């Protein structure tokens, strides 16, 4: 079961829009401080492509993630956690993003 730190961060992620969720996923994959056990290069490429598809600013300019305060706050909270807690949050976030994208693909297939 999740502890309070993990639950707090997951609640924060639930309140983010999809762009910030993708930004957080990218930051988590880039961070040398997170102890992710997932294939970070593959995930980074997937999330990078997704964000480029929906965010013109990300696609056309060099982005300073520091300007996204909510994403940076979430990263700070993540760095306070143990590796197992970080991976619980990452698993939740990555599965959420994957589910949302697959849901949109299914909707396109049905309507198209």
Notes on the protein architecture:
The N and C termini lie far apart (41 Å). By secondary structure, the chain is mainly alpha-helical. Helix 2 (18-30) packs antiparallel against helix 3, helix 2 packs across helix 5 and helix 2 packs across helix 6 (83-111). It is globular. The protein contains six helices and no strands.
Key terms for this structure?
112 residues, mainly alpha, globular
Tell me the radius of gyration: 14 Å
The largest sheet, given as strand count, sense and whether it forms a barrel, is: none
Please indicate the percent range of residues in DSSP E strands (runs of 2 or more): under 5%
| Terminal Cα span | 41 Å
> How many helices does DSSP assign?
6
Taking pLDDT < 50 over at least 5 consecutive residues as the criterion, the unreliable ranges are none
Shape: globular
Compute the average pLDDT: 85
Helix content: over 70%
Care to count the β-strands? Answer: 0
Topology pattern, helix = H, strand = E: HHHHHH
* Class by alpha and beta content: mainly alpha
Gist?
The protein has six helices and no strands. It is an all-alpha fold and 112 residues long. The longest helix is centred in the C-terminal third of the chain and has 29 residues, at 83-111.
């Amino acid at each position: 079961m999740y502890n309070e730190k993990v639950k707090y961060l997951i609640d924060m992620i639930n309140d983010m829009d999809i762009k910030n969720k993708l930004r957080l996923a990218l930051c988590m994959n880039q961070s040398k401080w997170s102890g992710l056990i997932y294939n970070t290069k593959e995930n980074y490429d997937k999330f990078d492509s997704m964000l480029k598809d929906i965010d013109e600013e990300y696609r056309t300019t060099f982005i300073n993630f520091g300007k996204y305060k909510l994403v940076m706050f979430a990263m700070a909270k993540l760095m306070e956690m143990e590796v197992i807690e970080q991976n619980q949050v990452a698993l939740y976030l990555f599965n959420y993003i994957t589910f949302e994208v697959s849901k949109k693909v299914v909707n396109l297939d049905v309507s198209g």
